[in-house]
Amino acid sequence: RVLSCGLKDFCAHGGGDAGPAAAPAGEKRVPKIASVVGILGHLASRHAGSIKQELLRMFHESLGSGREHHKATVPFLLQLALMSPALLGTVSAELVDSLQPPVLNQLHQHFSALPREELERLVGVVVHLISQTSAGAFRLLQFLVGTAMP
């Protein structure tokens, strides 16, 4: 539920590709993503497996859907990873394992329609996250080299 609420709020504040939501005049809300990161950090000590499973489920589910909130899921998950190295470490190994050719093709299709500036920003975030990854860094680099080679 925490992730779902965070994603909805992320979409409502113009996160990712979902576009800004219309807020009533004079209403200024602060996105709840910092609260989501805090709650997940607190829950991680007892529910790390469930959190990891849900993050991976959200990622894979978003690639097969054209629904608006699913378009913002990957940028939302990237933002969570930027704000919480612990969450990044929790899913990085399994995420690398799941990036098989069909998933990479889905990612390509998912982001091919983005404007160049948005795509470059997302790539910058991914590169930053890769450089911040310590656990599983060798496997990640092996994946990148293996994927880049014909």
UniProtKB/TrEMBL annotation:
Biological processes, Gene Ontology terms: snRNA 3'-end processing
Domain of life: Eukaryota
Short name of any one Pfam family annotated for the protein: INTS5_C
Domain Integrator complex subunit 5 C-terminal: 32-150
Transmembrane segment boundaries: none
Cellular component, GO annotation: integrator complex
UniProt cross-references to PANTHER family, sorted A to Z: INTEGRATOR COMPLEX SUBUNIT 5
Name the UniProt record assigns to this protein: INT5 protein
Lineage: Eukaryota, Metazoa, Chordata, Craniata, Vertebrata
Gene: Ints5
